[in-house]
Automatic annotation (TrEMBL):
Ranges for region Disordered: 1-28
Example GO molecular function: ATP hydrolysis activity
Protein name (database record): AAA family ATPase
Low complexity composition-biased segments: 12-28
Organism, as annotated: Aphanothece hegewaldii CCALA 016
């Protein structure tokens, strides 16, 4: 009798013991996966073509090396030219992953910085800051936004931007097999920056030009945001957006925000929609999903 009760308790204990969670195995990312992410980006057809051509070249160079043939020397340090919001940082991040998948970089991570992260206010401190940045980016990509500010047109003798450039160039040579540097900024400013220093000009010979997004591409980006967060544009609202994007694109200058412009308008629009909806009782899901013409906010 006692033995039966003991067995029963063991069975109850076994049946109530929680099953340990099973670890989910994620499929490792491949080169094709990364290239698919690139090719799925809105616009940037010239960038996609250039990156795919570079990838094909690197593949063949690796095959040549594996077959005992002499590979062609190639610098991967690049200049990304274009206005803000044109996808430069996004592409830089994908480039790091591409180089990792090909076997050029072991990590392929992206470290972002700008002048404020490189230039200190005291003698000797700038070189130390640059060294720390470079070490954090080893085996990956160092992305320097608005790099032209390191060499201002009206630089004074007390500006330490040149020290940052000199230190960076030396570290690029020291770690030439472990570091890719991408400098980015407005097209005209970046051309002036690279041409201001023979060391920069010799190391940054590869240029990528990011064009402003056209009105239809801006609409596609807005709709992408809508899809991501469960909104839908009424056709009249879409026409208002297209007309406004066309006007802004036609009158654009260096302050044209591109992707950032779209994100800002989307955020203001959903806020305006909330102001409208909060006054309506018994809201349906469809009402909360739909963006009407009066919700569009460009101000």
């Amino acid at each position: 009798m006692l033995l039966d009760e003991k067995k029963k308790k063991q069975q109850e204990t076994t049946s109530t013991t929680p099953t340990p969670p099973q670890s989910v195995q994620t499929k490792p990312e491949t080169l094709d996966d990364v290239l698919q992410k690139l090719n799925n980006l809105i616009g940037m057809e010239n960038i996609k073509e250039e990156v795919n051509t570079l990838v094909n070249f690197l593949k063949i160079q690796k095959l040549r090396q594996d077959k005992g043939l002499t590979p062609i020397p190639l610098t991967l340090h690049s200049v990304f030219c274009g206005s803000p919001g044109t996808g430069k940082t996004t592409v830089a991040r994908l480039m790091g992953q591409i180089y990792k998948q090909i076997g050029i970089l072991s990590k392929g991570h992206l470290v972002e910085t700008d002048r404020s992260g490189m230039v200190a206010g005291y003698i000797g401190h700038t070189a130390k800051q640059v060294d720390e940045l470079v070490k954090s980016a080893l085996d990956g990509v160092l992305f320097i936004d608005e790099a032209y500010t390191l060499e201002p047109e009206d630089a004074s003798g007390n500006d330490f931007g040149q020290e940052a450039i000199d230190t960076l160039l030396k570290r690029m040579e020291d770690y030439r097999d472990r570091l890719v540097v991408i400098v980015a900024g407005y097209t005209g400013e970046m051309e002036r920056f690279v041409n201001s220093n023979p060391g920069l000009r010799s190391r940054f010979s590869r240029h990528f030009y990011f064009e402003d997004y056209e009105p239809q591409e801006l609409i596609a980006m807005f709709e992408q945001q809508c899809q991501k967060y469960g909104f839908q544009l009424e056709s009249a609202a879409q026409k208002i957006l297209l007309d406004k994007f066309t006007e802004l694109y036609s009158n654009r200058d260096d302050s044209f925000g591109n992707g950032r412009l779209v994100r800002n308008i989307f955020e203001r629009t959903v806020s305006q929609q909330a102001n409208r909806l909060v006054k309506i009782p018994n809201l349906s899901v469809e009402m909360m999903r739909t963006i009407l013409p009066e919700d569009i906010d460009f101000e």
